[in-house]
Amino acid sequence: MNFRLVQLRKICVLNTGQGCRNSKQQVTHMKTTNGIKKTQQLLADLQRCEFDLRAKQKLKAALKKLLAENSVRVLRSAAQEFPNDGMTLFYILAESHLALHTWPEKGLVNVDLFLCNYSRNNYHKAKSVMRELIQLLKPGKVIQHRVTRLN
Known about the structure:
This protein has about 150 residues and is of the alpha+beta class. It has 2 domains: about 30 residues, no CATH class; about 110 residues, S-adenosylmethionine decarboxylase (4-Layer Sandwich), CATH 3.60.90. Helix content is about 30%, strand content about 35%. Strands 2-3-4-5-1-6 form a 6-stranded antiparallel sheet. A hairpin with a 2-residue loop joins strand 3 and strand 4. Helix 3 runs antiparallel to helix 4.
């Protein structure tokens, strides 16, 4: 980890106010070296979901189908259930990951979806997966964030 930080400091001094003025400048500058590409990580907080978040098997089956329909290849998946009926689902994908954290007692789902652009631009596919996930869970309120990532 320290090695990576040292390498980043050669490109832009981080967290000191020197070098790059904002993260967009840093990303642009880093993109031009060594063929690094930009992509988007999609995050969402889905509140007041109508989908029964306690129906764990139904949710797993629906997610498996949703990913397959969007040509997202799942390499491995794991689920951890918690005493409050919550669950964390994690999918290792051919080009990154999908994580869902359910909070049935709050009607809340936290989503973290990242499809890197290693072999092709996958941003349209990531947007489609997120859109269909929102349609599946039927939240009353959606808060979404995009984080620019490098790969």
